[in-house]
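Tokens for chain A. Residues wanted.
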């Protein structure tokens, strides 16, 4: 069974490298594979490749999260009893604030039934151990901003922006318009500094937000 969930939250981490981890539970092999994805299409490609890489497996269960706010979340039991595979994997991703990631757990049935509780534990354990050895990347937020000033205060504003931000453009008209990029962690400090240097006028405006994982 496939579940599609639309939820919002602050998902801060992704992963750099593809990781594979295998465990065994009562003769069944559980192979966890985690890798980064950029779209649902790339997730489908990962699943297709894994079916070729691990042919004739009993189940190819998975969970994925896409988007900087976790807008798209999917989980698949792929034939296992409802909520015994895909949801436990998804819960591992959610607890770790992961996004733009697919985590697939491939099972080769070993002949011994695990029961619902045993399946949940096995899939959760495989997902958690797989994710634990991934090299994580953290979301960094930057803002494209603009600030206006007049010619009486251009010197202080210009000097500060050139020394403390990524200054992109300066437009000269009746007023001067500066366009620059700044990391989210420095935004409020920069706003306060510009407020003081710009004759105590708060003219900073956020134009666009960017999220990158590194």
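Reply:
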């Amino acid at each position: 069974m496939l579940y599609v969930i639309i939820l919002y939250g602050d998902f801060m981490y992704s992963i750099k490298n593809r990781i594979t981890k295998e465990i065994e539970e009562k003769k069944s092999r559980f192979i966890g594979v985690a890798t980064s994805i950029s779209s649902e299409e790339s997730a489908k490609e990962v699943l297709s490749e894994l079916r070729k890489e691990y042919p004739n497996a009993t189940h190819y269960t998975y969970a994925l999260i896409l988007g900087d706010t976790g807008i798209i979340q999917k989980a698949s039991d792929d034939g296992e009893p409802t909520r015994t595979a895909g949801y436990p994997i998804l819960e591992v991703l959610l607890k770790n604030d992961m996004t733009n990631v697919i985590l697939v757990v491939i099972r080769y049935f070993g002949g011994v039934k695990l029961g619902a509780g045993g399946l949940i534990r096995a899939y959760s354990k495989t997902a958690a151990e797989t994710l634990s050895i991934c090299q994580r990347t953290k979301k960094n937020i930057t803002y494209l901003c603009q600030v206006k000033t007049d010619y009486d205060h251009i010197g202080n504003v210009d000097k500060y922006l050139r020394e403390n931000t990524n200054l992109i453009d300066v437009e000269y008209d009746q007023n001067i318009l500066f366009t620059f990029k700044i990391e989210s962690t420095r935004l409020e400090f920069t706003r306060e500094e510009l407020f003081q240097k710009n004759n105590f006028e708060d003219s900073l405006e956020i134009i666009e937000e960017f999220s990158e994982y590194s």
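Residues 2-134 form a domain with the Ribosomal Protein S5; domain 2 fold (CATH 3.30.230.30). The chain has two domains: 2-134, 139-213.
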